Prior knowledge:
Low-confidence stretches: none
CATH topology: Alpha-Beta Plaits
Shape: globular
Mean pLDDT: 97
Number of helices: 2
Order of helices and strands: EHEEEEHE
CATH class: Alpha Beta
Radius of gyration: 11 Å
Strand content: 25-35%
Strand order of the largest sheet: 4-5-1-6
Distance between the termini: 5 Å
Amino acid sequence: MVVVTLQRNKCIGCNYCVELAPQQFQMSKKDGKSVLLGSAEKKGFFTIKSFDDSIFESCKQAQQACPVKIIDTKQV
């Protein structure tokens, strides 16, 4: 299982996550911040849990590219 977490309130809208993992991220037209598609929010953290291991690599690349380090990707 792949778990991806986004601290959306700290997003600066650089768009790297969308470029590297467009199936999981998109930019909000309302505030210009990243949205983790299909996520559930809890205390400012947006999380998805997916059994599709093929998303791990692109989400890990998005995590590494994020200049404010608000994406966490892990396999469990």
